[in-house]
Amino acid sequence: MNEKALQYINDYIVLRTEISELSAKLSTLHKDKMACKKGCSSCCMNFQVLPVEYFSMLNELKENPPKEFRELDSDHDDCNFLIDDTCQMYEARSIICRTHGLPLLFMNQEGDAWELSACPLNFKKFDDFHTENTYPQDTYNSKLFLINREFIKNYQDEKFGEFDMISLNRLIEDLRK
Ligand code: SF4
User: Which of 79, 95, 96, 119 to mutate for ligand 1's pocket (most ligand atoms within 8 Å of CB)?
Assistant: First the structure.
């Protein structure tokens, strides 16, 4: 990968670290409500991620390959890195995987009200939400979008549009190349 594209991968890692730290803080803040534990994997799906995130994960997994994964299978569209309810690429997992279970705050489609998305196993009743006790999804999505926009301009091996996403399960094919 060329230098300039790598620079945006580094920006992504900085953002991901900031998000991981915030997620840890919010998990601690809501520890009495959080039912998330090893073995609960209902949030795990074959997510689509932006190219900067995808190629960052691919680089990391080439250095540190997952111990196991399920083979691609057109009948299933869940995440093939989930084995026995355990993530096989936990350290390299995507941003969406790092916010599983947290209360996510975002603006509605009309742009006139805040909405909250929260796992019903964790938050049966949660109406006292505000910017200090929720994950600001729009803010971080915007930051990620801008980093990705620069990344795709500079990435030379494949061309992507600003809204193109890549499935996590493609990692299985790319790890074999
Ligand atoms: S990468 Fe890991 S945490 Fe993310 S969906 Fe797959 S198994 Fe779940």
Answer: 79
